[in-house]
Amino acid sequence: YQTRATKDEL
Amino acid sequence: MNIFRFAGDMTHLASVLVLLLKIHTIKSCAGISLKTQELYALVFATRYLDLFTDYISLYNTLMKLIFLGSSFSIVWYIRYHKIVRRSYDKDQDTFRHYFLVLPCLLLALLINEKFTFREVMWTFSLYLEAVAILPQLVLLQRTRNIDNLTGQYVFLLGAYRALYILNWIYRYFTEPHYVHWITWISGLVQTLLYADFFYYYFQSWKNNVKLELPA
Fold first, then answer.
1. In a domain, B212, yes or no
2. What pLDDT shows up at residue B144?
3. CB-CB under 8 Å, A6 with B113
4. If pLDDT is split at 50, 70 and 90, which confidence band does B201 have?
5. Among B100, B94, B83, which residue's Cα sits nearest to residue B33?
6. Which residues of B touch A10 (CB under 8 A)?
7. Which residue of B has its CA nearest to A8?
């Protein structure tokens, strides 16, 4: 989940 | 998604559209640094490697495609378009941008959140984006006179990262475990690099005089 949260920004 | 990040993305979008509009309509890239545009194309290429593997939202995918498409087409215009390329001032745009790429790559190999190819590439794109504006700022110092489209382009580009800093502060206080020092520090460095440009941009705007950067 953590990496998903990090990479949701452009 | 929060208002700061959305405003940041829209400002970023506006900056690339202003640039594309300028180049496409007046068929000129005077005052634009090809080196900065190439660095930005590299930033997006290394940051959006997950474009086809991780689907986050339609918005996210659409924006990634727009940023990739616009940055590579700007590089194409300046390099290969038969009219635009004539207005490219390669004698002035001499910043050795490879001196930016290599240190960022080494730093990404040393300081990252996870030592995987994707993560190192993503971290590299953050470090590179922080310094990608340097060739453009150097070119503006040299050519001194800044046409207002170029001035708006640099201003919007700096403003988007400043809005992202507000987004990071907001997410830090509203989301548990949202801590990303690498992103925050490189974003802060990036915004600080624009600081002097912002100062002169506001001075010229306030005094309603043409934007001049001190040599």
1. no
2. 77
3. yes
4. confident
5. B94
6. 9, 12, 60, 63-64, 67
7. B56
Assembly ipTM = 0.83
- Written as six digits, the tokens of B15 are 């900056």
**How many structural domains compose chain B?**
1
CA distance B144 to B139: 8
Residue-level length of chain A:
10
| In the predicted structure, residue B154 carries a pLDDT above the cut 80 | yes
Which range marks the domain in which residue B51 is found?
A: 3-204
Distance from the Cα of A8 to chain B's closest Cα (Å) equals 7
Specify if B59 maps to a domain: yes
CB contact under 8 A, B122 and A7: yes
Per-residue model confidence as pLDDT tens digits over B82-129: 999 999 999 999 999 889 999 999 999 999 999 999 999 999 999 999
Single out the residue of B36, B44, B8 nearest to residue B122, CA to CA: B44
Closest residue in A to B56 (Cα) is: A8
Whether the per-residue pLDDT at A1 is higher than 60: the answer is no
The whole-number pLDDT of residue A4 equals 52
Q: Evaluate whether residue B129 is within a structural domain.
A: yes
Residues in B touching A8 (Cβ below 8 Å): 56-57, 60
For tokens 């150097």, name the residue.
Answer: B138
Q: State whether A4 and B56 contact (CB < 8 Å).
A: yes
User: Does some domain include residue B213?
Assistant: no
Q: What 3-state class would DSSP assign to B212?
A: strand
